[in-house]
Amino acid sequence: MSEPEPYEPMPDDWQRALAVVAHPDDLEYGPACAIAGWTAQGREVAYVMVTRGEAGMDTVDPAEAARHREREEIEAAALVGVQDVTFLDHRDGAVEYGLPLRRDIAAAIRRHRPEIVITLNFHERWRGGDWNSPDHRVVGRALLDAAGDAGNRWIFPELLAEGLEPWKGVRYAAVGGSPGARHAVDVTDCWEKGVAALAAHRTYLDYLGPDHPMADARAFLERKVERFGRRFGGRPAIAFELIGI
């Protein structure tokens, strides 16, 4: 069997990014390690959470879960240099693809005017073959579509009345956790911040229990950056699928 091709470096010709994911903690399972490095370089990154993750813990009332997960996401974001975190309040576990979701994301893109958007794997399966969640699949696809919507003044013209002018500047989408990843980011100097960000989700990690493979934030991310690093010159790395917009 032939060796997999090495990852290519991610483009660095951008200054502003917007990360749009379904749930609090989605970014912390890898992409936040790279985000820590980007903000340390002086790049601007903002987060949009489509839900508050309220349906993520079977034994916790949704309203209480939402409070915990919102607070912990804001803390996790700050640990990697992100201060702007928005929650769209779509229903966790039942996010629907459609015009309302595209409109909300297009509005966020117009507001933040990013050159690159970041999301989580939206393909049907994860790298190991497991089935992906419907929220992840819906949000990623809606983000790609909304990146085009954001640049067309005749789609969602009501956004103009809110002072949100069209933005055609999105050039790339970076998809973390994708089985189609071909690019990577060296996180040698910043992955520890990613560990702290994942560990900030104490309520959810405690709910998973000590035997869950993601419950130990350090061990989980260490395995990940080492695995990706084997295809990136042996340097700790986080991999992304890069899609042109």
TrEMBL record:
Keyword Nucleotide-binding: no
InterPro entries: GlcNAc_PI_deacetylase-related, LmbE-like_dom_sf
Keyword Nucleotide-binding among record annotations: no
Top-rank taxon, per record: Bacteria
Keyword terms of this UniProt record: Zinc
Entry protein name: PIG-L family deacetylase
